[in-house]
């Protein structure tokens, strides 16, 4: 269903990004982000899996060196991304996830930064699509506020 909302020419980038989100959500590390060695072990599994590399002895998670670092739980990222593509508002997403409005915005900002770095075409579409929807919403909000102010001053 979500693929229908994304233009056909962006399906490959969208699939790749969606795969990256699923990898972060599953918390499965393939290699150390610092030395790229595949020999590491789990130090802690809750709330997020923390690994320690046997080569460089550094600690890391699947989100280390990404904009998603310290934005656990990672399952929210995919839900926020797909909800925003469906044009669901921040307050509604926050209500559905039972989190604050600010947490939703912080995670979407991380998603936008990641898209800008690794998937520029998808980033351009994602941000322009949101702006196209945002502008009429702001205009509607302005009209509503203007009507309320006008009724208060009378």
Shape: elongated
Order of strands across the biggest sheet? Answer: 1-2-3
Number of helices: 6
Helical content stands at: 55-70%
Stretches with pLDDT under 50, minimum 5 residues: 131-136
Distance between the termini: 49 Å
The tally of domains stands at 2
Q: How much is the radius of gyration in Å?
A: 19 Å
State the secondary-structure class: mainly alpha
Please summarize the sheet with the most strands: 3 strands, antiparallel
> What's the mean pLDDT score?
84
Strand count? 3
Q: How do the SSEs run, as a string of H and E?
A: HHEEEHHHH
Which percent band covers the strand fraction?
5-15%
Oligomeric state of the chains in view? single chain
For this entry, give a set of tags.
single chain, 154 residues, mainly alpha, 2 domains, three-stranded antiparallel beta sheet
Structural overview:
The chain is mainly α and 154 residues long. It folds into 2 domains: 108 residues, no CATH class; 33 residues. Helices cover 59% and strands 7% of the residues. The protein contains 6 helices and 3 strands; from the N terminus they run H-H-E-E-E-H-H-H-H. The chain has a 3-stranded antiparallel β-sheet, with no helix packed on it. The radius of gyration is 19 Å and the shape is elongated. The N and C termini lie far apart (49 Å).
Write the layout of secondary structure elements.
Blueprint: H1 2-5, H2 11-26, E1 40-44, E2 50-53, E3 59-60, H3 75-85, H4 90-97, H5 101-118, H6 120-153
Antiparallel strand pairs: 1-2, 2-3
Helix pairs in contact: 2-3, 3-5, 4-5, 5-6
């Amino acid at each position: 269903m979500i693929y229908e909302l994304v233009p056909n020419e962006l399906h490959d980038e969208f699939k790749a990004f969606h795969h990256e989100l699923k990898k972060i959500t599953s918390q499965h590390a393939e290699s150390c982000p610092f030395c790229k060695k595949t020999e590491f072990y789990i130090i802690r599994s809750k709330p997020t899996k923390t690994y320690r590399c046997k080569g460089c002895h550094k600690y890391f998670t699947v989100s280390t060196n990404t904009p998603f670092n310290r934005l656990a739980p990672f399952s929210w990222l995919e839900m926020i991304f797909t909800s925003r593509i469906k044009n669901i508002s921040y307050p509604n997403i926050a209500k559905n996830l039972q989190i604050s409005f600010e947490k939703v915005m912080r995670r979407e900002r991380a998603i936008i930064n990641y898209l800008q770095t690794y998937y520029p075409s998808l980033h351009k579409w994602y941000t322009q699509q949101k702006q196209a929807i945002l502008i009429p919403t702001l205009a509607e909000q302005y009209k509503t506020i203007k009507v309320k102010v006008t009724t208060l001053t009378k």
